[in-house]
Amino acid sequence: MTIRTTEGPWVETICQGRVSHADIVAHLALERTQGLLDRPELVDATAATADFTADEARHLYDLVHEIHGSQPLGAVAVVVQDDLTYGMVRMLGMLVDRVTPVHPFRDRAAASTWLAHLR
User: Fold this and answer.
1) Domain boundaries, the chain
2) Res 119 pLDDT > 90
3) What is each CA distance from 1 to 7, 61, 113, in whole angstroms?
4) 55: Cβ–Cβ under 8 A, 6 or more apart, which residues?
5) What is the DSSP string of 38-97?
6) How would residue 48 be classed by pLDDT, with cut points 50, 70 and 90?
7) For domain 2-118, is the CATH number 3.30.750?
């Protein structure tokens, strides 16, 4: 996962290949050190596939909940192409919904509109 830009109304990140639990944990740590966790984020995962389990998604919930205890978190829109990744992002979003909104989308325009309406 690579942060493409922090300019504009939200952070833009791109993912390619298989995205694991460890990749997401490392990305959150990077955003934390850069002071970006409170910003909305648009993740372009159209060239990526989720590679984490339901148990790892629950661990991500625990991590996000822990981080939220010390700082606010921005909404995350994830643009995906395949059904597996859509489902995994949706499950993760349902787990963290009380902490911060995370939502999968099939196209960038819809994701951008959603983020813009949350501001």
Assistant:
1) 2-118
2) no
3) 17, 19, 22
4) none
5) TS-EEEEEEEEEEE--HHHHHHHHHHHHHHHTTS----EEEEE-SHHHHHHHHHHHHHHT
6) very high
7) yes
